[in-house]
Each structure stands twice: as structure tokens, then as C-alpha cells.
Automatic annotation (TrEMBL):
It comes from Gallaecimonas pentaromativorans. This is DNA-binding winged helix-turn-helix (WHTH) protein. Coiled coil: none annotated. GO terms for biological process: phosphorelay signal transduction system; regulation of DNA-templated transcription. GO terms for molecular function: DNA binding. The keyword Ribosomal protein does not apply. Residues 1-98 form the OmpR/PhoB-type domain. The chain crosses the membrane at residues 123-145. It comes from the Bacteria. Residues 1-98 bind DNA. Keywords: DNA-binding, Membrane, Transmembrane, Transmembrane helix.
Length: 655
């Protein structure tokens, strides 16, 4: 037994014990890294060496290795600056630096007895666990459902082969931030990994003996074609910067919705399998992202795009060049699929089918009463049967992560778990949002005074310090509310989705960055006399650095400003921003911004005026908001994602 600081290490058993010699449970990789560094404590160990010896050469990102080391440091309460246990040096690696003392023999001799007793206890509980699982499987196989477990933490999209019912699904592994394409023959219980990628994969589609999936990198996208029999794959690049959605049309074609490079609009294309070429659908083009699905006879196109009150479903008759119907739904539509000539769609809470005769939407459900309140992720259709991929029936939790920059990369510094009913407002710490079953309530922290209520989430855009006011956006209205008195001062019926509000220097006015079907527009709202005027087009972000005004052009994603003579000057390489991107500017002239990807969010950083392109700093799931605290540390508000279930057959897709 060896003493290291206030801990004990048993190298033979590879155990870490606390100061009272109680065994500390460690994750497998944390344990392996600890004892690899301990065994090689006479030198620095590089990231490459850890890749090779701890992960056995398996492909994982450097950030995954660093996160594992961060967990070990957190266990030791080791902040890294004055490292007591694990020291890191740039370009050298990591080293176990704590002094090692040998324990006295009489104390060491007592440990095997204790460990023997613990071992028998583990054997006993293991036996009970195996007996329980055996009984459960026996009962499950004699009732109306069965459970299949997969070594995968999250399933993000699922589809079934229309010919034989085989499954294909996309899984995401947070441990090494990989996306994996799984294939499961319907008649067996064996899952096969056909492909994996650190870039997001999305929308699996069966076409005969192949599976097609989309892929999305930082600034490009395309298709991955995988042969089920040979397991061989080929990558196809498309002329696009963002891939939004894919849906099957028939055995020879599928529909792709994407944003072409050098373009600020989104469009649907018919992809023909035979020659692997895309053909644009002229009527399916918008300024904002949308999802689309084409009927198998290629006559009816269904499109869905966000609206101020939820989503709009639009049906087009391509053959006769007619718009059939528009339906407004007070929820976000996440998936469209045709079943023969019937359109079926899903929002995050409900399933709908379109009545062909009346054009009305009818609700239906295939989930049990236990799962009807859970969030829908995707759904599939096979042999007339709908299966829903939805979150597990568990409450979500929110937490705040604070990151510090060390050795050129972000490290998790602190995590604070939050009351799920109390959402902090990162850009104004004097207020919070109380989430109740009846809706959302904006309150003042000091005296709990109610400032605003809404059935939908309230967006806090900015504060006006001279008026002690807060600017919010709710229910398609912009409101300025006095934080001390709780009184409404000014209100504006918004013309579009307000993404940003900026107090205008030396004026009782706000600049409003809005997005409507016509595109991005900057408005000037003089709230004192309630006048609204158009100021500029194509501004995605507007901000100040040292009193100088900058903006990001929505057409090319470049940071721009004006010289004293009025000439436009470029201050960056192109940024890849979507309508849902959020951003913050640091005191040292760095612009941090987010780019939502399928299932995750990438966080980038760029120095304004630098010739370097934006660098990706973090990839994370469940991001709600981003900010910088008073120490200029990155702070993220996160939503802990529940696990995923596939209804109808009750397949458990995560552990």
C-alpha cells in the first residue's frame, strides 16, 4: 500500500483509496489513465502515448482524453495551476508529481481481510443482479413487449427498411464524441457498426442493399453510402455548407434540403441514385431552414418551417404548380414522412396525419400512457406500423458549466446543478425564469416580483441600465419592463422573429436584428415615441468593440465595419452561422458563437480582425444559452438529455 498525498494507492489491485482507506469507485478510463501515469511517474506522458496505450490506438479525440484527465484532477481536487498530483506542460504532456510513501506493514496486512469481505459482498450482489435480469427477461419474453439493450448512450435518428423491416439508426457517444451508424437485421439481435464519424451524421435512408446518411463538417456537407453486405462505404461531397434534412421518395430517389455554398438561402434537391446527381426543386426555396418530404409519385411536396407561433406546414402540387394548403401548428415540426399517399408528421409532443379529403390534420398516437408526455425525437414507418423514438420518461435537469482556458484548450472548471423549475438568465443575473406547469414566469431575484408571464419560453434580449429596465421577447411582442416596479413601459408588435436587441448609444432606442421569411433585417425602434424604421439588410450580428460598430453579413458570414470615409472593411474569414446561432463578445475582442449541428452544438471562437479562420473550441449536447462571466470565463446553460426509447416494441436504445 502506497500513500500519495491524502490518498492511498494499491498498485497490485489497481485501487485508489481515500484517507480512511475506503475504495473509491473510478470509471474504467479514469482508472487506466491514473495507473498509467503512476507507473510512468518519472517522466511526462504525451497525449499520443495515452491514445496508444490507454485507448489501444482506437480513434478518439484529444478533447475526450483531456476530459478524462479533468475528471481525475477533479477527484484529486487538483486545479492544475499548482498541481499536487497531475501536472501538465504544453508540448510535453502529463506527469504524476505527488510524493509516494510506503505504508507500514501492519496497516497493509489488515487490508486483504477487508477486501476479501468486500469481494464476497460484490459476488453476492452480482448473483442477485444476474438472477433479477434472468427473471426479467423471462417475464418480458412472455408478455407483449421485449427489451433490447445497445451499448450506446443516445439514439438520435431511426429508420426501417421498407422491404424487410431492418433497422438503421444513428447513435452518439459522448465519451469520445463520435457518431455511429448502426444496422440491425430485423430477425436477429446483433447490431453492427457500419460507419462512424466525429462529424455529425443524420437522416439514415434505406435504398435496396445500401444505407445512405448525410454528414456535416464545419463548412461542408455530403452523403455517405454504405453497402450492407460488403460493409464498404463511399463518401460523396455536395455543393453545400449546411445539410438540414433528408427523406426517401422511392427506390431510386431521395430528397435533400440544404444550403448551397456561397448562398444564403435553403433549397430542396432531388437526388437520383443512378447517376448520383442533384436536381433543384424550384418551388422549395426559402431564406430560413426547413424540412421537406416528397410523395412517391413526386407530385406533392410537404414543407415545414418555423413560424412565430410554432411551425407552418405547406403543401405544394408540383405537377399543377399550385399551393394546396397552409397549416399553422403551435409546435415545432421535427419530421415529415409519407406512408403511401398519406402524410404523417411529428412535433416534439404529438403525431399527426393529413386527411387527404379535407386537408385537415388529425392527431394520433402509438405510445403508451407512460410515454405520451415525453419529447419525440423521430419516428419510422414499416408495414403500416408507426414507431416513435422518444426520450425516456424522466425529468430533465439543468446545470451551469464554467470553463477556463488552459494550454490552448477549454477545461471544465465548475458545474452547478440547478432547480429544473428555475432557469437563470445569463445576460442579466438580477432576474430568472420560473418554469411552472402553467407556463413561464419572469421574476426579479431580489424580491420575487413577477415581471412577465407567458405560455411559451420568454427570451430576455438585453437590459437598459439607465432605465433599470429589461427587454424581453414573448408571443411575437417586444416589451420593455421596469425591473424594480414590475411595470410595462413600452411594447411593440414585432415584424419577424427578434434575434437581438441592442441599446443605441445616446438615444432612447433599440437596434433590432430580426428574421422573417424575407430575410435578415435591422430595424431602429425609438421606444419613447414608438416609431419603427428599417435601417439595414443582411445583418446577422451587430456589436461594438472599443466604441466601433461591427456586423456579420448574413450573405457571406464575414465580420465587417466601415472606415471613416464610409468604405466597408472586412475583419474575418467567413463564419458559418445559422438562424439559431447565439454569440457573445469578450473583453479581449474575441467573438464566441455557436453553430447548432444535428443533435449537438459547436462552439467557436475568432479574434476580430484576425486572418485566422474560426476555431472550434467545444462540442456539446443540450446547450440552452452561452455567456461570459465577470472573470471572462465561458459559462454554458445546459439541459441534461434523457435517454432514448423506441415505442411500439419498447426497444431500449440506451443504457
Amino acid at each position: 500500500m502506497l500513500k500519495v498525498g491524502r490518498f492511498y494507492i494499491n498498485p497490485q489491485q489497481q485501487l485508489l483509496l481515500d484517507e480512511n482507506k475506503n475504495e473509491i469507485a473510478l470509471e474504467a478510463k479514469v482508472q487506466e489513465i491514473l495507473f498509467y501515469l503512476f507507473d510512468n511517474r518519472d517522466r511526462y506522458v504525451s497525449l499520443e502515448e495515452l491514445h496508444e496505450n490507454v485507448w489501444s490506438g482506437r480513434i478518439v479525440s484529444d478533447s475526450a482524453v483531456r476530459r478524462t484527465i479533468s475528471k481525475l484532477r477533479k477527484l484529486f481536487d487538483d486545479n492544475g495551476e499548482e498541481a499536487e498530483y497531475i501536472k501538465s506542460v504544453v508540448k510535453k504532456g502529463y506527469k504524476f508529481v505527488c510524493d509516494v510513501e510506503e505504508e507500514e506493514k501492519e496497516e497493509e496486512s489488515q487490508r486483504p481481510k477487508n477486501k476479501f469481505r468486500i469481494k464476497w459482498k460484490k459476488v453476492f450482489y452480482s448473483f442477485l443482479y444476474i438472477a433479477f435480469i434472468t427473471l426479467f427477461i423471462f417475464i418480458a419474453n412472455t408478455t407483449f413487449f421485449k427489451i433490447d439493450t445497445l451499448v450506446q448512450e443516445h439514439v438520435l435518428a431511426v429508420t426501417r427498411n421498407p422491404q424487410n423491416g431492418d433497422y438503421a439508426y444513428i447513435g452518439y457517444s459522448p465519451g469520445d464524441t463520435r457518431y455511429q451508424l448502426f444496422y440491425r437485421p430485423d430477425e436477429t439481435r446483433n447490431d453492427e457498426i457500419l460507419a462512424f464519424s466525429h462529424d455529425p451524421l443524420l437522416s439514415p435512408i434505406f435504398i435496396k442493399n445500401t444505407i445512405w446518411v448525410g454528414w456535416q463538417s464545419i463548412d461542408s456537407c455530403g452523403l455517405l453510402k454504405v453497402d450492407i453486405k460488403t460493409k464498404k462505404s463511399s463518401k460523396i461531397s455536395l455543393n453545400c455548407s449546411t445539410l438540414v434534412h433528408m427523406s426517401i421518395v422511392n427506390n431510386g430517389e431521395f430528397l435533400i434540403t440544404m444550403r448551397p455554398k456561397q448562398d444564403d438561402t435553403y433549397q430542396s434537391y432531388l437526388f437520383k441514385i443512378k447517376n448520383e446527381k442533384t436536381f433543384p426543386i424550384s418551388d422549395a426555396k426559402m431564406e430560413t431552414p426547413f424540412i421537406a418530404s416528397l410523395s412517391s409519385d413526386e407530385n406533392i411536396l410537404a414543407m415545414s418551417y418555423p413560424s412565430l407561433r410554432g411551425s407552418t406546414l405547406r403543401l405544394l402540387d408540383l405537377k399543377n404548380n399550385l399551393q394546396i394548403k397552409n397549416n399553422d401548428i403551435p409546435e415545432k415540426i421535427i419530421q415529415l414522412r409519407w406512408q403511401d399517399s398519406v402524410l404523417k408528421l411529428a412535433t416534439e409532443s404529438s403525431l399527426y396525419k393529413l386527411d387527404n379529403k379535407t386537408g385537415a390534420l388529425e392527431k394520433f398516437d402509438v405510445r403508451t400512457n407512460l410515454s405520451k408526455k415525453t419529447k419525440i425525437i423521430d419516428f419510422s414507418i414499416y408495414a403500416g406500423k408507426v414507431q416513435v423514438l422518444h426520450e425516456e420518461d424522466k425529468d430533465t435537469t439543468q446545470h451551469l458549466n464554467t470553463y477556463i482556458e488552459r494550454s490552448g484548450h477549454l477545461e471544465l472548471f465548475n458545474t452547478t446543478f440547478l432547480d429544473p423549475h428555475m432557469l437563470p438568465v445569463l445576460n442579466d443575473s438580477s432576474v430568472f425564469i420560473d418554469h411552472q406547469p402553467s407556463g413561464y414566469i419572469l421574476k426579479n431575484i431580489s424580491d420575487q416580483k413577477i415581471l412577465a408571464t407567458s405560455n411559451n419560453l420568454i427570451q430576455v434580449l438585453t437590459s437598459i441600465e439607465k432605465n433599470k429596465s429589461i427587454v424581453i421577447f414573448k408571443n411575437n411582442k417586444l416589451e420593455i419592463i421596469n425591473k424594480e416596479k414590475g411595470t410595462l413601459q413600452y411594447r411593440l408588435d414585432a415584424q419577424g422573429d427578434v434575434k437581438q436587441a441592442i441599446p443605441v448609444p445616446n438615444m432612447d432606442a433599440l437596434w433590432l436584428i430580426t428574421l422573417s421569411p424575407a430575410g435578415w433585417q435591422t430595424l431602429l425602434w425609438n421606444y419613447k415615441n414608438n416609431s419603427l424604421s428599417a435601417l439595414a439588410l443582411h445583418e446577422r450580428i451587430r456589436f461594438f468593440i472599443n466604441g466601433k460598430l461591427f456586423w456579420v453579413d448574413s450573405r457571406d458570414g464575414i465580420i465587417k465595419s466601415k472606415s471613416k470615409s464610409g468604405d466597408i472593411i472586412y475583419f474575418s474569414k467567413p463564419l458559418h452561422l445559422s438562424p439559431e446561432s447565439t454569440w457573445i463578445v469578450s473583453d479581449d475582442s474575441y467573438l464566441w458563437f455557436t453553430e447548432p449541428r444535428p443533435y449537438v452544438t459547436d462552439i467557436y471562437k475568432i479574434k476580430v480582425g484576425s486572418e485566422q479562420p474560426p476555431s472550434i473550441e467545444l462540442r456539446i449536447r443540450g446547450l440552452l444559452d452561452i455567456n461570459l462571466n465577470e472573470k471572462n470565463q465561458l459559462t454554458l446553460l445546459l439541459n441534461q438529455q434523457p435517454q432514448s426509447l423506441l415505442s411500439s416494441s419498447f426497444r431500449l436504445f440506451s443504457l
